[in-house]
Write a structure and sequence with these properties.
This protein has 360 residues and is an alpha/beta fold. The chain has 14 helices and eleven strands.
């Protein structure tokens, strides 16, 4: 199909479809397959260092040398609170004991924010991926300028109009409107501030009407009809994450995949209990545990994630997958396991049908 808009031309892609950069789930093979199919493939490098990110980019380029989106986490660096962290370990200790495991004695900041990662910034300037995107906020102004000057297209997530205006003022090329329905980590700049919880379609329309930048709709979109609806509301493209979790190229484990293709997919929860930051997951043993825990009692992101990952590892060693970060949006029951390229082709056919119906 041929959809012409300024964003697709800027990104160098044929289809208004972006595969979300899901750290730990999206793989170089997924990004390459999506890119080859005419959409924008993405990798999330927020959970690795510069060397790891460089290796992931190289792995994509072995199979695909076209447009690639590399996503960075720009969260506020964690402030350790030993008392909160010790209490969190103690609170979860019975879960470890039930699995015959011992929790770590102390927690660490497992991910480094891009805002203070000079090595990652230098790597991006050397590798020059065609697209770089930011989640949880923005890096320093000079870095945005340098990446733009290097010819890199910049995207950034926003969950409300104030964040979107900050993105526009920073000089980013396009805004990802992340709705409340979206799976994975909520892209709020300040996780402790009140969240307006604006849905994807309302947010997309709001940004399209009030900002002079292309908008990418994200959250709860699982098929071509959803993409068409976002385009109708003024989006230039749609970003889909959960739809790709069950593709062949996904790094999701068997428990995660099984949950997404079962009745479990009908229930998602926004929780801090897994990582320390609000994120939408399938309802599981961790989200149940964290349901009544105050935000102040959960260690900062990503320090809390250190314990969450240890618990998940202990559980999976026993064949229990209910303690994992099973990120999923509210459209999770619409997941369709298949190769990533076939999913892109399916989405495209559905989009063509939806647009033909609307114009008919």
């Amino acid at each position: 199909m041929a959809i012409a808009n300024a964003l697709l031309e800027l990104l160098g892609i044929r289809l208004p479809i972006i595969q979300a950069p899901m750290a730990g789930v999206s793989s170089p093979a997924m990004a390459a397959a999506v890119g080859t199919a005419g959409a924008l493939g993405s990798i999330g490098v927020g959970a690795t260092d510069a060397a790891g990110a460089r290796a992931m980019i190289a792995a994509v380029r072995e199979d695909w040398t076209g447009p690639l989106n590399v996503n960075l986490f720009c969260h506020r660096p964690a402030v350790a609170n030993k008392a909160v962290e010790a209490a969190w370990i103690e609170r979860l200790a019975p879960k470890f004991e039930a699995l015959g495991a011992t929790p770590p004695a102390a927690l660490t900041e497992v991910y480094r924010s891009f805002v203070e990662d000079d090595d990652m910034f230098a790597m991006l300037l050397e590798e020059r991926p065609s697209v770089v995107s930011f989640h949880f906020g923005l890096p320093r102004e000079s870095w945005v300028g340098a990446l733009r000057d290097a010819g890199i297209v910049l995207l950034a997530s926003a969950t409300n109009l104030g964040e979107a205006r900050a993105v526009a003022a920073a000089g980013v090329h396009a805004i990802i409107a992340q709705g409340w329905e979206a799976g994975g980590h909520r892209g709020v700049f300040d996780p402790d501030a009140p969240d307006d919880q604006i849905g994807t379609m309302a947010l997309t329309r709001l940004f399209a009407r009030q900002l002079d930048l292309p908008v990418i709709a994200a959250g709860g979109i699982m098929d071509g009809a959803g993409i068409a609806a976002a385009l109708k509301l003024g989006a230039s493209a749609a970003q889909l994450g959960t739809a790709f979790v069950t593709t062949d190229e996904s790094l999701a484990d068997k428990g995660y995949r099984a949950a997404l293709t079962s009745a479990v997919a009908n229930h998602t929860v926004m929780t801090r209990a897994i990582s320390g930051r609000p994120a939408r997951s399938l309802a599981n043993r961790v989200t149940d545990f964290g349901a009544d825990i105050a935000a102040r009692d959960v260690p900062a992101y990503p320090i809390a994630y250190d314990l969450g990952k240890a618990l998940h590892a202990a559980a999976t060693s026993k064949g229990e997958f209910g303690f994992g970060a099973q990120w999923a949006g509210q459209g999770a029951p619409l997941c369709r396991p298949m190769p990533a390229a076939r999913l892109v082709a399916t989405l495209t056919a559905e989009l063509e049908q939806a647009l033909a119906y609307r114009s008919g």
